[in-house]
Design goal:
Elements (H helix, E strand, L loop, with lengths): L2 E2 L4 E2 L4 E2 L4 E2 L4 E2 L4 E2 L4 E2 L4 E2 L2 E4 L4 E2 L4 E4 L12 E4 L4 E2 L4 E3 L8 E4 L4 E2 L4 E2 L4 E2 L4 E2 L4 E2 L4 E2 L4 E2 L4 E2 L4 E2 L4 E2 L4 E2 L7 E5 L2 E6 L1 H6 L4 H14 E3 L5 E3 L14 H12 L3 H12 L4
Parallel strand pairs: 1-4, 2-5, 3-6, 4-7, 5-8, 6-9, 7-10, 8-11, 9-12, 10-13, 11-14, 12-15, 13-16, 14-17, 15-18, 16-19, 17-20, 18-21, 19-22, 20-23, 21-24, 22-25, 23-26, 25-27
Antiparallel strand pairs: 27-28, 29-30
Helix pairs in contact: 2-3
Length: about 270
């Protein structure tokens, strides 16, 4: 039987795994399913059609699965799915999806959401992601595996943050952040390769070297040391410098067997990076 504090409210229909722990003054709605080993410490509110996996921890005053803050939302059926081994700290809010976004907000596995984070409707968060204190994610944001978003940053609607990317503190992210790169500023600019993060994740030194080379070729370095994508309009008609497409083709020829280079190139081709 689950351990449920006598002051908790578990509405009829809720599914609670046998070894889950529901602490004082928590409220679990009728369409919620909570998996094995998950713990609600106290004062946690989980509502909506929300599925929570195994071994997650919810800290006090987190609000999970509530209706989205979207004026188009009219109470239609949508859901929130949370995977396994996530740490959701104090006062985090995660809203369920909308029909316009496919109906699902989805959180992967082994993520850390620090205090005061907001995850809006239809966000898709991968695995091993760190979202630091007071980060605000607008609707439809995608964050890929192993990315880090530092404190008090704000991420605009429909932005994708690539895998192993690092977003600096208090950054306004209005364009997609390329994988393996550091972005920072207001608005965000590409600062370089996330070398420390990649080394901590034990990516091969050769791959990190390839990514450094790709950064130098794909992003123009302005006088402030900031990286900006090289676009056709940046070149005069007389310029003999290679275009972004030409640089990408060259990188594919040189490092075609490097999975990380392939991931970076695919990301740039598919998205608006800036």
């Amino acid at each position: 039987m689950p351990t449920i504090h006598p002051t908790a409210v578990i509405e009829p229909g809720a599914q609670i795994a046998d070894d889950a722990v529901i602490g004082p003054l928590c409220h679990v709605g009728p369409e919620v399913a909570i998996g094995p080993g998950t713990r609600l410490i106290s004062h946690v509110y989980i509502t909506g059609r929300t599925t929570v996996g195994s071994r997650n921890t919810f800290w006090p005053h987190s609000s999970i699965g509530a209706d989205p803050q979207d004026l188009k939302f009219q109470g239609e059926d949508s859901q929130l799915i949370i995977g396994d081994d996530n740490e959701i700290r104090e006062s985090v809010t995660i809203h369920k999806g909308t029909v316009n976004g496919g109906g699902t907000t989805r959180i992967g596995n082994c993520n850390l959401f620090m205090a005061g984070v907001h995850v809006a409707h239809d966000c898709i968060i991968g695995d091993h992601v760190i979202v630091a204190n007071a980060v605000q994610l607008a609707g439809h944001v995608h964050i890929q595996d192993h990315a880090t978003v530092s404190g008090a940053s704000a991420v605009n609607h429909y932005v994708t943050i690539g895998q192993y990317a690092f977003v600096g503190g208090m950054t306004r992210v209005v364009n997609d952040a390329p994988p393996y790169m550091i972005v920072e500023g207001n608005p965000a600019r590409i600062r370089g390769v996330n070398v420390i993060g990649l080394e901590r994740s034990r990516l091969p030194a050769q791959t990190i070297g390839h990514l450094k080379n790709a950064y130098r070729r794909l992003f123009r370095i302005n006088p402030n040391g900031e990286g900006e994508p090289i676009r056709p309009q940046d070149r005069s008609p007389q310029s003999t410098s290679p275009t972004m497409a030409q640089n990408i083709d060259q990188l594919e020829r040189e490092y075609g067997q490097d999975h990380c280079i392939g991931t970076l190139i695919t990301f740039i081709r598919d998205r608006s990076v800036g």
